[in-house]
Amino acid sequence: MNKTNPYLQFDQQMVGDIYTSQEVMDNLTVLCDEYGARFAGTPEEYAAANFIADRFKKYGLQNVRLEDYPYAGWTRGTATLEVLEPIRRKLHCISLPYCPADDITTELVSAGHGSPPEYEALADTAANTIVMAKSSSPPDLGRWVHRKEKFERAVLAGASGFIFVSEHPGVGPETGSLQNNRPAPIPGISVCKEDGEFLTRLLDRKQGKVRLKLQTTDVNEPRTSWNVVADLPGHENGSEMVVVGCHYDGHDISQGAHDPASGMVSVIEAARVLSAYAGDSLKRTVRFIAFGTEEIGLTGAFRYVEAHDSELDNIRFMLNMDAAGGASRKGIVLHQWDALGTFFNTAREQMNAEMPVGQKVHSYSDHFPFFLKGVPSSHIGDPEAPPSGRGFGHTAYDTLDKVKLENLRAASAVGARVTLRCANADDFPAKRRSQEAVQEIVDTDPGLEGYRISLKLTNSVSEIGV
Ligand SMILES: [Zn+2]
Q1: Facing residues of 219 across strands?
Q2: What CATH number does domain 77-217 carry, 2.60.120.260, 3.50.30.30, 3.30.70.360, 3.30.420.40?
Q3: Is the per-residue pLDDT at 463 higher than 80?
Q4: 261 CA to middle of ligand 1, Å?
Q5: pLDDT digit string, tens, across residues 401-453
Q6: 259 C-alpha to center of ligand 1: Å?
Q7: For the chain, domain boundaries
Q8: Distance 323 CA to ligand 1 centre (A)
Q9: CA of residue 368 to ligand 1 center, whole Å
Q10: Tens digits of per-residue pLDDT, 365-387?
Q11: 114 phi and psi, to 5 degrees?
């Protein structure tokens, strides 16, 4: 039996408009085909920020502005990888963001998937070598091991260089930053699955004696990036607000059509229909944020929470829609907010939407700086999906042709309907956490193991003064 739906009229208008409009795909086409990768700190990123600001203005949002901030910029240089022994062979490779310029010649060691037990098994043998790790995670580990954790474990093991190997055939090397908003201490590159398999066979056949020469020429220098911020004002309850966001920067080797642009245009679409149909009835302000510089360190989101520290108490809820217009189910993944489970399950029943609600937290998107500040946060995703790889994500093949209008519509509709409920509910059963309560989760949650390794590396780097 259907739940009584107090938002029925809004739902019908907003969802009806989304499903009879092409606007969301038109916006995606401009973001991807006009502005390309929108890589952090580039003119394309700035042009995309202005396009998003123009869309927010066109849809009636207020206080639309670009907020700039300095960050550690990175520009790709040519990278070359050559096998010197036991045979000579040049392999195609690309630097990963924050790779420093370097020139090293040393032996290759495989860390398999790069999971904690595999690094433990390497023990001292990883020191002064180039460590190779696949992008996949061991099926029995029960969690996805992020590239950054694999790289940071290699640094902590004393490696001189790092090779990231795509797990997917036919998509070339997979990119992704080595560090957050700072140059990496050792070079890291990526090769395609096929070349990774070749190197693995060489190691097996030659009893582990493979010598490599790796040269990188990347440039690390300060740059400027931008968050785009816009408000749909609430008419009651003063300064209280709901934040809806997604990053708009992509990786330099791709259009970033799925990650992040499918989510970014779904945020814009949610803003469009909320403004058109619910703007006069909003009780609390909805703030829309297009974050810059996510791909290389969540920098736009970290700068936002710093710059708006005095407003964080006012944020009732933060919804991150990173890459939300992809193929996965449009569920609400709460970042360990048990008290909100019933609220969103009630919303799902009212909405008659396929919107699984679950609890899981990770540190690899723009919700995380809000989470660390104790703000009730979530992202759109499938809380029941098993850990899996990125497919064509973070490769040259994350292109517009693979994004489906129906998925953009589904993400936009869930985004708009959930946001309306968060903004207008009289009772919202979550309040900002204390720093002690945040620390407890940071110290113990299995989903934050990679973040704990990151903190360990930060401490060891500052101890040795690099
Ligand atoms: Zn993303």
Answers
A1: 75
A2: 3.50.30.30
A3: no
A4: 8
A5: 999 999 999 999 999 999 999 999 999 999 999 999 999 999 999 999 999 99
A6: 5
A7: 8-73+223-433, 77-217
A8: 6
A9: 12
A10: 999 999 999 999 999 999 998 87
A11: 75, 30
Compute, in angstroms, the gap from residue 120 CA to the centroid of ligand 1. 30
Q: Report the separation in Å between the CA atom of 320 and the middle of ligand 1, taken as the mean of its atom positions.
A: 10
Q: Of 144, 154, 211, 146, give the one whose Cα is nearest residue 188.
A: 154
Q: How far is the CA of 249 from the centre of ligand 1 (A)?
A: 8
297-321 pLDDT per residue, tens: 999 999 999 999 999 999 999 999 9
Give me ligand 1 centre to Cα 209, in Å: 38
Distance from C-alpha of 336 to C-alpha of 8, rounded to nearest angstrom: 29
Long-range contacts (CB closer than 8 Å, 24 or more residues apart) made by 433-439? 433/374, 434/374, 435/374, 437/374, 438/371, 438/372, 438/373, 438/374
Query: What is the whole-number distance in angstroms between the Cα of residue 307 and the centre of ligand 1?
Result: 22
Alpha-carbon distance of 63 to 231, in angstroms, equals 6
Cα–ligand 1 centroid distance for 394 (angstroms): 9
Please count the other Cβ atoms lying within 10 Å of the Cβ belonging to residue 443. 9
Q: CB under 8 Å to 440, separation ≥6 — which residues?
A: none
Centre of ligand 1 to C-alpha 361, Å, is 15
pTM confidence score: 0.95
39 alpha carbon to ligand 1 midpoint, in Å? 12
Q: Separation of 154 CA from ligand 1 center, angstroms?
A: 24
CA distance 391 to 281: 41
Whole-number Å distance, alpha carbon 250 to ligand 1 midpoint, is 8
pLDDT of amino acid 388: 76
The span from the CA of 368 to the CA of 380, in Å, is 14
Distance 393 CA to ligand 1 centre (A): 9
For domain 8-73+223-433, the question of CATH label 3.40.630.10 is answered with yes
